[in-house]
Design a protein that fits this description.
The structure is a homodimer. The first copy, chain A, is an alpha/beta fold. Chain A is 48% helix and 16% strand. The first copy, chain A, has two domains: 1-111 and 288-317, Isopropylmalate Dehydrogenase; 114-284 and 320-349, Isopropylmalate Dehydrogenase, CATH 3.40.718. Chain A has 13 helices and eleven strands. Chain A has an eleven-stranded mixed beta sheet, with helices on both faces. The longest helix of chain A is centred in the C-terminal third of the chain and has 26 residues, at 226-251. Chains A, B: One of its GO terms (cellular component) is cytoplasm.
């Protein structure tokens, strides 16, 4: 039996969406049970033999700062859900709450894995091959070192291996060109580390990739620092939303275009389904001593259910043990990198 | 009379496209003349009273390295076009050649303006408001300082002021959140400089913007380092091309979807026109002692003509003098920033 702790209060819509998703999830997964964390009696609205309400008196708002979430809302549904994982009452926690607060709380409550300096956020972006490219980091770390990028690559590989059953997923380093001489100093250092890890067999590193390669599906995993990843993700969201808006406007311009929309409806809905980011909802917080998944704040029931499914799959396939094992396997390389970089940074000491 | 020097050999298609664009441009601009730079007799194929062939024996290939372009192809069409600007024979140069070679050659031949450490590449990205957002830097500088970002903001403001007749265009700093406390150390430093420039009246700085704000049109100008800008631009191109590919596939799936495509044709072509990046072709190389515009390598005649129009507009409105004046006006601030940063970097000296 897999147990997930669900922050039912988080996200733009709260229990209305999360409880509907929980019901659908339970119906489809007979070996799963859910801890519905949140304010009573709200979370008790879902009555199911495999759903159990867990009381949490506070709610982290979507615009609460990390400080407010950590210091002033110690009994928040987000935190109580994560604590279920820490205490072994749940295999994974899922929340649609605000990203900064979720990462900070998860890190505070669960701590990072040995050998990992910074946890990262990994999400899936649909690609032209009909699958999805896993991209990390998506905003948890704005000032990264080359070693951090290597750690992200290792954790991302474990994630994709577990969730897609791909034993040696390919890793690309996001850069401004494919040639090894391109990029910032940081990226060049990271590329060297990744090549070394590839040579040792710790990673399937395929080299530099560019922004458009995310959509070409050139690599299973694309590694970047959190600043670049966040900008890329928000740029993608912005463009997709602009195109969607333009399509709506053009098809509703007059009686003729509305007729065209009716005729084209099956095509447009196939297109919409194909581009549907809800199918890929559920970002993994990697590098912690426990599994936490983050749903998009604006998720509807279908999207939130996907995040639950991803957490369930990760728990069933013991993602945590996989990440731990891969990090341990790469530990000598990470230690060597650290020493090398320290030597470079302070040549006189 | 405005004179443009055109690298007719550059780009994926060479003279076939560039000469067609030159003819259309000349027909629409009676006070312009063109220097058609390239191999003879190819560039002589266009015969027009206001077009003059200028011989250049070599061509920089799209995959030539900067070294090859600079050292081994000293008589390239790209270089000769830029030299026309240096020697005062042309007001601006336009090339669809490879970006790295073009920037390096332009920098070598023309040198940077006083007070500018690094030239930048500024392009326009269509936004939901029906206009375009100017984004810089797009890849010329992968390791930037906070001062570089301030210089980009100043040069971008001059560009938009001149090309759009907007006297105080708004400037946003690309970041991972709107709050001032967000971002990498570099971005926080840059934000401080930009705020100081805003307070002095040198800039209309509106604060941090996020990736999706490029498409919302939240700021006239979005400033970022070249690494982030390049990733964002290529990500945009990748997503747009994937969506375009999906649409083609879905509409050509079977006889019914093909019928739908015919009915929806006017809507789809309106949509295509609206999203048409060709209308925004022509990136400015800013910070040099001369005007150089870069066309997309894959530009067709319509797109290349747009790049010519942008160079023409820039020359007619004396963009160079505007950039020079704005940089001079902000010189005290730049000098102060340099001193402040040097002091921070070496506290003991």
């Amino acid at each position: 039996m897999i147990t997930l702790a669900v922050d039912c209060m988080g996200g733009d819509h709260g229990p209305q969406v999360t409880l509907a998703a929980c019901r659908r999830f339970l119906e489809a997964h007979e070996d799963a049970q859910l801890l519905l964390v949140g304010q009573l009696p709200q979370v008790q609205a879902l009555s199911h033999a495999r759903a159990h309400a867990v009381a949490a008196s506070e709610v982290v708002a979507m615009d609460d700062s990390v400080e407010v979430a950590l210091r002033r809302k110690k009994d928040s549904s987000m935190r109580v859900a994560i604590e279920q994982v820490k205490h072994g009452a749940a295999h994974a926690a899922v929340s649609a709450g605000n990203t900064g607060a979720l990462m900070a709380t998860a890190r505070y409550v669960l701590k990072t894995l040995e050998g990992i300096d910074r946890p990262a956020i990994a999400t899936q972006i649909p690609n032209a091959r009909g699958g999805a490219t896993t991209v990390l980091d998506l905003g948890a770390n704005v000032d990264c070192s080359a070693e951090n990028l290597l750690q992200f690559a290792i954790m991302g590989s474990a994630l994709v291996a577990v969730l897609k059953g791909e034993p040696r997923p390919s890793v690309g380093l996001l850069n401004v060109g494919e040639e090894a001489i391109k990029g910032s100093e940081l990226i060049k250092q990271a590329a060297e580390l990744l090549r070394a890890a590839g040579a040792r067999g710790d990673l399937n590193f395929i080299g530099n990739v560019e922004g458009n390669d995310i959509f070409r599906g050139a690599a299973d995993i694309v590694v970047c620092d959190g600043f670049v990843g966040n900008v890329a993700l928000k740029t993608i969201e912005g463009l997709a939303s602009m195109i969607g808006g333009f399509m709506k406007e053009e098809f509703s311009r007059n009686i003729f275009t509305k007729f065209a929309a009716i005729v084209a409806y099956p095509v447009l809905s196939a297109l919409k389904k194909r581009m549907d980011h809800r199918r890929y909802n559920g970002a993994a917080l990697l590098g912690l001593r426990g599994l936490v998944f983050k749903s998009h704040g604006s998720a509807d029931a279908l999207a939130f259910e996907q995040a639950l499914v991803r957490a369930y799959d990760a728990a069933r396939n013991d993602l945590l043990a996989q990440v731990r094992a891969q990090v341990a396997r790469a530990a000598p390389l990470l230690a060597a990198a650290e020493t090398a970089l320290e030597t470079t940074a302070s040549p006189g000491l």
